[in-house]
Structure formats: structure tokens, C-alpha cells
Amino acid sequence: MLAVEQLTRRFGANVAVDNASFTVDRPMMIGVIGRSGAGKSTLLRMVNRLTDASAGRILFNGEDVLGYRGAAKRRWQSQCAMIFQQFNLVPRMDVVTNVLHGTLNRRSTAATLFNLWPEDDIHRAIEILDRLGIAEQAPKRAEALSGGQQQRVAIARALMQDPAMILADEPIASLDPMNAQVVMQALRRIHEEDGRMVIANLHTLDTARRYCDRVIGMRDGRIVFDGTPAQLTTGVARDIYGADASFSEAATSTEIGALERHPVHA
Ligand SMILES: Nc1ncnc2c1ncn2[C@@H]1O[C@H](COP(=O)(O)OP(=O)(O)OP(=O)(O)O)[C@@H](O)[C@H]1O
User: Fold this and answer.
1) For residue 120, what are the contacts with CB-CB under 8 A and spacing of at least 6?
2) Which ligand 1 atom sits nearest the alpha carbon of residue 41?
3) Is residue 158 part of a domain?
4) What are the E-state strand segments in 12-157?
5) Domain ABC transporter, which positions (predicted)?
6) Which of 7, 17, 40 to mutate to test ligand 1, by most ligand atoms within 8 A of the CB atom?
7) Does ligand 1 have an atom closer than 6 angstroms to the CB of 34?
8) In this structure, is residue 18 part of a structural domain?
9) 262: phi then psi, degrees, rounded to nearest 5
10) Which of 9, 46, 80, 173 shows a CA-CA span of 20 to 30 A to 261?
11) What residues make up the domain containing 93?
């Protein structure tokens, strides 16, 4: 269904993504790991067409995604909804309105300006919030919610688009371990219950192991690992992170208590 072929993005002399290829033949939950600057965000942003590719192809169900222009590009962007580390909500707006913004690309400007939302959409927004366990927050301003709740609002907004896939760029990097767990569980459920593909950039190895069916490891723009969590041995992880023998998984962990169990010595 998704084929990324020799995808490359250069920024001047810097190659952010270098000849990356992978195929996904059924909806799965994929974690993309690698250290800061490895090219994870650029890869996701190219899939979503937020960033242009320098070379390569992306095919979805046989169609050339990088060739989409205008309305076709917008349709594609609603097919692969993106969520971000910083949630990207409108802080002073209430939660339901933020979720309804997920339908913006199929609404007229006038309807949006006057805040005229179809009743069906409002009901659907509340249903989605309920599914994510935050329906009671619906009338509150987004800024009044905790980080984990705000990220669930962002997921709800993405689901309003009824996307085939969700691209999550460091969805839990700003969250404490408890909230990180709630958000990852929400993404996993969306994958399992709705059959949507989820591709999430993750800083932490244990999160990728625990929630993903497949892990792609990036180093210096290149895909250096593509396999199951079971194949992701400490040696492989060391290679992805470019670390030496003192590498400890706990150093990349958000798991509650991981650092206490495996202290990292400086
Ligand atoms: N708009 C841009 N202009 C110039 N260079 C960029 C731009 N976006 C990314 N880069 C560079 O491309 C490389 C890959 O960055 P990218 O953000 O994709 O990595 P990442 O793995 O997502 O890192 P992080 O986890 O820190 O977000 C980095 O060297 C970065 O500086």
C-alpha cells in the first residue's frame, strides 16, 4: 500500500534523508527511531508533503504521491493526518472547535469564519473525544488541558479527517511517562480497532519496542535497520544511535522507573 523508493532530501550540502526505501503492504504500527538529526521528521514530512523531496518516489496504492498538486495534494494530506510534538492546537479555543478544525479542508471559508459547524460533525467530534477518554473536556479551552490531554485532542482532530494513516512526529517527546503511555495506547488502539496505519517518530527505544509491529532505524539520513522489535537487539540499537559499548537502553527510555532500575553512569 505504501512504497517509499530512494527518497532523498537535501538542505544545501546537508543530506537530511539519504536514499531511503521501505514498503508497507498492510496497515501496521511503525516506529521510526534514531538520534536527533537522523532525518526522522524530514522523512515523515515528505510523506505528508509538508516538505518537498529532492529525489525519489512515494507511492500509495500505486499512485504517485509526490506528483499531487492543488486539491489532490490537500486530499492526500487529509489521508495522512499528522500530529506533532507541540500538539499545534489553538490554545484559546475550546476543545471541540479544535477537533472540528480537522474538517477544515472540506469546508467553505465563510462557514469557518462564522463558526458554523454541521451538527453531525459536532456529534462526531464528541464521539471521538469520548473514545479517547476526554469528552468531559470538550467545552474547555485547549490551553487548560494537560499535555497528554492536549495530544489526545490533536489525535481527535486527526481522526476527524478519517485518515488512512496517522503520521506522528515525536508525539510523546513533551510528555511525562504517564501521559506518554496514555497517548501511545491511544495510537495503538486506533491502529488495531480502525485498521489505520500509524507511523510514529520516537526518541525512545522501549516505546518503539512496546507499541510497534515494526521498527525503522535511521542514522545520518539513512535507514540502517528495518525489522521487528524482536530483531532490535542492543547491538543493533547501538549501531542506530551510533553509541559505544557503554550504551544503555535506559538512556533512551521514557518508561517509568527505567532509570532507577538501570542507572546510567556518566
Ligand atoms: N528546514 C530545514 N533547513 C535546513 N536543514 C534542515 C531543515 N530541516 C531539517 N534539517 C536538517 O536535516 C537533518 C535531519 O533533521 P530532522 O529534523 O529530519 O531529524 P530528526 O531525526 O527528526 O531529529 P529530531 O529528533 O531532533 O527532530 C538535520 O541535520 C537538520 O538540521
Assistant:
1) none
2) 22
3) yes
4) 14-24, 29-33, 55-60, 63-64, 80-84
5) 2-245
6) 40
7) yes
8) no
9) -125, 75
10) 173
11) 28-49+68-254
